[in-house]
Amino acid sequence: MKGGTVQINWHGTKPVLTLDFHPISGLLATGGADFDIKLWLINSGEAQKKIPTSTYQNSLSHHCSAVNTLRFSKSGDLLASGADGGELIVWKLHSTETGQTWKVLKNLSFHRKDILDLQWSPDGAFLISGSVDNSCIIWDVNKGSVHQLLDSHFHYVQGVAWDPLTKYVASLSSDRTCRVYMNKPQLKTKAVEKMNYVCQHVIAKTEHQSADDSKSSKNHLFHDETLPSFFRRLAWSPDGSFLLVPAGSHKIPPASDAVNTAYAFSRKDFSRPALMLPGASKPVVAVRFCPMAFSLRESDSAGFFKLPYRLIFAVATLNSLYIYDTESAPPIAILAGLHYAAITDIAWSLSAQYLAVSSQDGYCTLVEFETNELGLPIPLAVSAAEHKKDLVHENKSPIIDKREEIVIETPADAGSIAENSKKTDVEKNEGKQASPSSISIPISNKPAKRRITPMAIDPK
């Protein structure tokens, strides 16, 4: 593995707020506070045993404000980008005599304020976006119109994710809740069903019982609006088996300090987190899965995920990056001290050769993996089908249940949070910002009768 911060002028010294790899060409798209989207060709550094580099290709210049989020559709022929002021643009790839070029396909207008995150539906026909106006919108891309408005949050929606099996969408807000919506289609005509998402779970608090069982206390699972980042990018695993949620804050009574963490939820049970992933000195702001699956390395796995293959994912805090697989408890790599300001986004190339990280300091980090360094790839379509059969027919959980529990309250109404924090340029440039430590707290389904003690993991 080779990696480091690439010292080039990505966006005119302005913060780089988002990035994503094209699923076919492998081009890296970056969006920044200079209002531009730029496309880069990634050059391997493996032959020279150096870090990978990037070569500028062209710019997509149509936004009138900072580009906070961009994502390619699975097919690669569409690109969606969200910006300040509610700007949301869908770009389409066109073939020309001299090559390929991106052109604006649609401007999607309804959000009143900054768009902070977006995600395509698996078939590329729909798009979900989250905004500072406290709402999520599901867009019908072909019609260029709002398909459904999800407005249950009471503060900024800073992360959205679409279930690859299409049953759920999820959103994460600075109102300290994660909401999971289930698709309950409505009959539009006699034979046609209309997609309709209804909130099924509001993940908000944990309940801790005292050692003598005399009383219990409830604590919030997530950071409040004082978290120094405008991004809380959550993600589904590529097989849909679990949802990974950042911005976690776990407090273990009687300790006064909370632990920064990310939570993993099995799609079979959103009532409680199945796993707490390592925290660090800074909050977790983004998680992203490698799009490939890999063969298992050991039969006597020490991991917490009951999967017939390995999935790999990255967890970014404000100042460090952890890389995990589902077969082992400790992180397989930790990168820290790469940037002078907050990490804003992370992205994997489809081939799993590259991992890219963007930052408020105006630079990006590129990490390159050698062939089969992460393991032997397995076609994910086959893996997902096998795993879906395992979930449905054999009723097995993808996450091992064998340790103490944290009960999660899922209220019908999470309660209102005062909207007194106004987003300014200073907040955005200074607030989106190293000695990481790892803590792993696996959780089971039996009622907790004693205090949960974090299990320290030596990353070395």
Kindly provide the radius of gyration, computed on alpha-carbon positions and rounded to a whole number of angstroms.
21 Å
Q: Within the largest sheet, what's the order of strands?
A: 22-23-24-25-35-36
Q: Which ranges are low-confidence, i.e. pLDDT below 50, for 5 or more consecutive residues?
A: 390-395, 400-460
**Under CATH, the topology is which?**
Methylamine Dehydrogenase, Chain H
Instruction: Estimate the helix proportion, in percent.
Output: under 10%
Global structural class:
mainly beta
For the sheet with most strands, the description reads: 6 strands, antiparallel
Q: Considering the protein shown, what is the CATH homologous superfamily? A: YVTN repeat-like/Quinoprotein amine dehydrogenase
Amino-to-carboxy terminus distance? 16 Å
**Strand portion, in percent?**
35-45%
Total DSSP E strands: 36
Shape, please? globular
State mean pLDDT (0 to 100 scale).
83
Q: How many domains in all? A: 1
Instruction: Report the total helices.
Output: 2
Q: What's the level 1 CATH class?
A: Mainly Beta
Do you know the CATH architecture? Answer: 7 Propeller
